[in-house]
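URGENT: need a sanity check before tomorrow's submission.

F., can you look over the Platelet-activating factor acetylhydrolase record below? I want to be sure the sequence and structure line up before it goes out.
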Amino acid sequence: MGNSSGHNNTMSIPPGKGPHQVGCTDLMVGHTVHGTFLRLYYPCQASEHPQLPDWVPCREYFNGLADFMKMNRALSERIFNYLFGNCKTPAAWNASFKQDGKYPVIIFSHGLGAFRTLYSAICVELASRGFIVASVEHRDESSSATFYFREDTEPGIKKHPSCDIAKPVSDNLEEVWMYYRPLKSGENEFPLRNKQVKQRADECIRALDILFDINSGKSVENVLQCDFDLSTMENSMDLCRIAIMGHSFGGATVIECLCKDVKFKCGVALDTWMFPLDEEIFPGVKQPIFFINSEKFQWIGNIIRMKKLDSAIFPRKMITIKGTVHQSFPDFTFLTGNWIGRLMKLKGDIDPHIALDLSNKATLAFLQHHFLDFNQWDPLIDGKDDNLIPGTNITIPQSSI
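Structure tokens as predicted:
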């Protein structure tokens, strides 16, 4: 989608720092709204001149962001295209999979108003460290925008798909866009969000089931035209080492998933929004959880709900990154200057590279206890760094504990 007249932005999404080069592809299984749509990140074979995909795949996603932010579509599209139209995801598009033993798996769930590509800095870093990461695009009307296909009602008329990298294999399918659904006037928010978080968990579990099929060598049909050969991933995943990870609403999805499916061995919840969850599920969560919070987003009620998941039996860890805001986790924090970033609350007081590096290293340290044989960065789990706070910066009244 890159616009040649767009912003010549020297800012970019940081590449992975691990030993593996990273590839990515899109996978849609089932063309209807009930299908599964995800961006897959994986260790890939080295390439001198990789093709990097656009960070925002097409203009409809800009329109969705505008709607979510309650901005005029025409004006915001020009602004977004100027700022982000040339931004690339630092992963090689459809690069050949690197077969090198069995990789652990992470399912990633995005936040409210986001979509599958907006957390690429996190996903690419994890893939560079030897994980296969599936970033789900949710169809619960919490994404800024997403799409699916329906049977073409006018098969004789040639259609032009909005996203060049997301064309359907079949000519008999037409694109249908789904945008963020705001609350209606007077609507009670909890029933909507609770219904959505349950759907989100189901979508993450379906994504995991698809990875199981790929790993077992079953034929998985991608609705999208794609040069990536899924069969090369057969027997490449360690499906005893599966984590669920997400930001904000995605953090709530982490907890819902842990309750619903024991195949998820642990969860990493980034600046979790606890509101959508029914507290009755908390006793059913038996897996380790790591809460990584920003300094500016959290409040007493939200932290109290996190604390209700504390356990003397199952590991529960929490750290807070100093100088961070809620949007310190998505990629936007790297792609705006200080003035715009602060104005739109996309940046905190800390250098975003330092903040996300701490978050990623702490995540990897937590996962190594359950998955990988390395012991780097262990002190970060306990908040031992000048830029970290052990637990939370929020003071909780003793009467609430």
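My own read: The longest strand covers residues 237-247. The first helix runs from residue 59 to 68. If you see anything odd, call me.
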